[in-house]
Amino acid sequence: MVSYSLSHIAYIKIFLHAAKHPHKPVNGVLVGKLTSPGIVEIRDVIPLLHHWTSLSPMMEIGLDLAKGHAESLDLSLVGYYQASERLDDTALAPVGEKVAQQIRSQFNDAIAFVIDGDTLGSGKAALIPYLPQSDSTTAWRPHPFDPPAFTPGSRVTLIDPESPSRAVALVKNECLHSKFGDFDDHLEDVSIDWLQNKACNI
């Protein structure tokens, strides 16, 4: 069985994206690679949009650019993440299923994360993992990992258990989310470094 490890910077960037646009849906892609023995290392994320409602041309362009950037680093798109505009909405949106399935068509062990708005500022890992129900369907559902994701012994782990609390501090104390930019932001200001967000590599 495949396991998933989420790097510190990947968690931080997902958190910053949600914190910058707390009342909007946000989404992005997970970047990493499958290593032996059967571990998907999620090393970084690339934030896409905060205006999305469908598979728009901008979404497709952003996905293509993100894929090209990942490949330039000898990595792959290994999954998808999203946050909804409502804190209590933890469903993977239909567009999210489509994007996740699109990534899965090129990386069979793809995973999706939905940000849990109710626990986002708690210092706990605020991500709900989704996997496809079966090989015969494109429907993605929350996966009942046993032990649960981000708990000791789970197949879904944080490289640094302190990442969630560190992310909260970076927003509250340093306002780091103000330096974070996604593809939407880049379209309005081409100087924004949405592919790497080097200012947020902490």
Automatic annotation (TrEMBL):
Transmembrane regions: none
GO cellular component: EMC complex
A Pfam family that the UniProt record links to this protein: UPF0172
Domain MPN, first and last residues per copy: 4-136
InterPro entries: EMC8/9, MPN
PROSITE patterns xrefs: MPN
Family designation: Belongs to the EMC8/EMC9 family.
PANTHER family membership: ER MEMBRANE PROTEIN COMPLEX (PTHR12941), ER MEMBRANE PROTEIN COMPLEX SUBUNIT 8_9 HOMOLOG (PTHR12941:SF10)
This protein's name: MPN domain-containing protein
Organism: Scleroderma citrinum Foug A
